[in-house]
Amino acid sequence: MDKKQYLTTSEFAKLCGVTKHTLFYYDEIGLLKPSFLGENGYRYYDWRLSSTVDLISVLKDTGSSLKEIKTYIKEGNLEDLKQLLKDKKRIIDKKVKSLTHLTKLIDNTIIGIDNEKKYPRDPFIEFRDESYYIIEKFPKDFTIKGYSETISNHIMYCDDNYYGNDFFIGFSISADKLPSSELELYDFVHTRISSKVKDEKLFIREKGYYVVYYYEGSYESLHIANQRIIDYLNEEGYEMIGYSFEHEIVNFLLTSNPDKYITEISIQIRKNM
């Protein structure tokens, strides 16, 4: 047998990104045997076995014991292995989503820190392009339990469908209910998404002119912000249509003082008829 076609234990360990002792142990428990033993007792490996080492590493990282892995590999039941890999892929996908969401949270928090002093402190009007949201309506009969469950269901739905990695959740209330900001009057929770999708929960905000207000104050005082918006629009000759969309810019992650929270409020408008 031509040893030049095979790798020594050290060479194979380096290729696979594991230690020699790991390969020795895999050999000892019968999980991964070398391709052959030389006359000197040295182990030699076919480089193609690296894919098996990769598979072992993936299964270990997702919680499988070496005993379980050995059973799947040695018995060669492809259907069982296929199902195991699908199960492990779901675990990996969940971890990836969690880490992606955490990364976005960190990025947005940094942006919030950088921009905290830059947000205008008075209402203003600007043109906005069409935007897209996944929404979950609140039950008509308000209870704090139902309110919490709706938010939880919304987050789970967005996670399951890979939404919500770019933006965070916010809350919407019909403009005709303003200036009130009582919880029981809110219509739905929303998460903005980057592009239009085919989903029964999709909500499209039309392009057009919007009043925008970066309000500094506690959540309990949002009715004050809403009244300021109404007064401003009355002076400018506009009326509100559709829904008010609220989402946090500065929250408890950036300040321990609720009076320093900043909430972006945006509402589509049109000239008074």
Description of the structure:
There is one protein chain. This protein has 273 residues and is α+β, with helices and mostly antiparallel strands. The protein has two domains: 6-75, Multidrug-efflux Transporter Regulator, Chain: A, Domain 2 (Orthogonal Bundle); 116-271, Regulatory factor, effector binding domain (Multidrug-efflux Transporter 1 Regulator Bmrr, Chain A, Alpha-Beta Barrel), CATH 3.20.80.10. Helix content is 40%, strand content 25%. The strands form two sheets. The protein has an eight-stranded antiparallel β-sheet with strand order 4-9-11-10-6-7-5-8, with helices on both faces. Strands 1-3-2 form a three-stranded antiparallel β-sheet. A hairpin with a 5-residue loop joins strand 2 and strand 3 (43-45). The longest helix has 38 residues, at 78-115. The mean pLDDT is 87. Keywords: DNA-binding.
Summarize the structure.
GO terms for molecular function: DNA binding; DNA-binding transcription factor activity. Keywords: DNA-binding. The chain is 40% helix and 25% strand.
Helix-strand string: EHHEEHHHEEHEEEEHEE
CATH homolog superfamily of the largest domain: Regulatory factor, effector binding domain
Helix/strand structural class: alpha+beta
Dominant shape: elongated
How many DSSP helices?
7
Annotated CATH architecture of the largest domain? Alpha-Beta Barrel
Instruction: Give the count of structural domains.
Output: 2
Number of strands: 11
Task: Give the averaged pLDDT, no decimals.
Answer: 87
CATH class of the largest domain: Alpha Beta
CATH level 3 topology of the largest domain: Multidrug-efflux Transporter 1 Regulator Bmrr, Chain A
**Helicity, as a percent range:** 25-40%
